[in-house]
């Protein structure tokens, strides 16, 4: 469950996919959905909560502006459409929020921005300052300058990293279905809603994610599982629910936390207001991913989920066994390093790989449960002197290390 806050303001990240922003066929903005989301977000702000909106849709809006029938396959074409659409997208948000007197700010990020520790901290400070000013940051990936090496890949991942950056209480992944199902509910009438997930790794065997997602977006349900893994490891309660009824966010927060009921905007119709006897909530449709009880924070969260490995360091099983022990201090002797893959420079991230299979193959250390620092020195001539720091998340997809190698 989400951390009880005893009535204190919450920090909430709301992510909207392209399918919730523009029509898949006509590419016209879904104004009724967007207006409803704006009303909900502004009301949350009026209750003292801090809200960040992660918005996809730049390419979809660009398609509409250029009257193009489908998204191009080449990178430069997608980047050009993103450049066309991003300005119109933020103008649309500014117009909708402006009608309710709510200031917004555009924040465009790439993975390169947050892979560098200094730039990452600058982004964190900017987001925190905007929130303290009562501004709603609208975050998107800077698709115009992103290439495959520095892309988040999808805004689900970006929203999870944003949630970790600002220590959010909730991440809402709003989409065109109302939760995670055992199968595609559009095609399989026997599909069942998964209500609570405490382990993303365990639930993968129970659900099918391959067929969900629109032709305009870059993600689907699989990317939402990855995002939930990142966010919950950072202590963020993550919810998948429908964008068609964004007001259910009130009920979901109330239902999944120990807080006092959130107030709602009053209905102008007195007969529509809830009576004292009708205030008990049924469970609103959604999937809740419960946050880790021992969340990663700050440097560990940054190292685990934001660094983009430039290569791999291959170690033997003995070195890994010693390295995984906290009492080792994370010291990696160069004698345990069997080789490297790729090219990397001082300060870049690398993945730790372990050679322990009978066929001589290597495995990465994704499954291990450890957080550690690596520092290694050697007096053997001709071997590298490794000075590194690393972090490995229980729930992250990869183990990363910051490695400085000197020969």
UniProtKB/TrEMBL annotation:
GO molecular function: ATP binding; glutamate 5-kinase activity; RNA binding
Domain of life (superkingdom): Eukaryota
Domain Aspartate/glutamate/uridylate kinase: 11-240
CDD domains, sorted: AAK_G5K_ProB
UniProt-annotated stretches for the region Disordered: 256-293
Biological processes, Gene Ontology terms: alpha-amino acid biosynthetic process
A single Gene Ontology CC term: cytosol
Pfam families named in the record: AA_kinase
Keywords: Amino-acid biosynthesis, ATP-binding, Cytoplasm, Kinase, Nucleotide-binding, Proline biosynthesis, Transferase
Disulfide bond listed as a keyword: no
HAMAP family: ProB
Designated name of the protein: Aspartate/glutamate/uridylate kinase domain-containing protein
Organism the protein comes from: Hericium alpestre
């Amino acid at each position: 469950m989400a951390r009880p806050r005893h009535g204190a303001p919450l920090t909430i990240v709301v992510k909207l996919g392209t399918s919730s922003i523009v029509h898949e066929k006509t590419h016209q903005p879904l104004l009724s959905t967007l207006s409803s989301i704006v009303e909900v977000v502004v009301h949350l702000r009026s209750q003292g909560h801090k809200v960040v909106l992660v918005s996809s849709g730049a390419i979809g809006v660009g398609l509409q502006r250029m009257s193009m029938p489908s998204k191009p396959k080449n990178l430069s074409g997608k980047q050009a459409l993103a450049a066309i659409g991003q300005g119109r997208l933020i103008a649309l948000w500014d117009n909708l929020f402006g009608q309710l007197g709510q200031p917004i700010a555009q924040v465009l990020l790439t993975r390169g921005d947050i892979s560098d520790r200094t730039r990452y901290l600058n982004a964190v400070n900017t987001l925190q300052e905007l929130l303290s000013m009562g501004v709603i940051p609208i975050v998107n990936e800077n698709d115009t300058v992103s290439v495959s090496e520095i892309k988040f890949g999808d805004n689900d991942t970006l929203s999870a990293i944003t949630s970790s950056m600002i220590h959010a209480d909730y991440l809402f992944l709003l989409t065109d279905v109302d939760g995670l199902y055992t199968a595609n509910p559009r095609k399989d009438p026997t599909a069942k809603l998964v209500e609570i997930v405490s382990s993303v790794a365990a639930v993968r065997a129970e659900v099918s994610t391959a067929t969900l997602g629109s032709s305009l977006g870059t993600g689907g349900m699989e990317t939402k599982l990855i995002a939930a893994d990142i966010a919950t490891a950072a202590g963020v309660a993550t919810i998948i629910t429908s964008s068609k009824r964004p007001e259910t966010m009130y009920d979901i927060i109330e239902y999944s936390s120990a807080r006092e009921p959130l107030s709602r905007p009053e209905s102008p119709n007195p007969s529509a207001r809830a009576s004292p006897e009708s205030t008990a909530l049924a469970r609103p449709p959604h999937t809740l991913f419960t946050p880790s009880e021992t969340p990663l924070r700050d440097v560990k969260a940054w190292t685990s989920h934001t660094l983009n490995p430039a290569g791999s360091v291959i170690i033997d099983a003995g070195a890994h066994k010693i390295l995984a022990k906290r009492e080792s201090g994370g010291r990696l002797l160069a004698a345990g390093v069997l080789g490297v893959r790729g090219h990397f420079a001082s300060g870049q991230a690398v993945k730790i790989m372990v050679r322990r299979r009978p066929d001589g193959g290597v495995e990465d250390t994704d499954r291990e449960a450890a957080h550690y620092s690596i520092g290694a020195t050697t007096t053997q001539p001709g071997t590298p002197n490794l000075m590194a720091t690393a972090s490995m998340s229980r729930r992250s997809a990869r183990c990363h290390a910051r490695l400085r190698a000197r020969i």
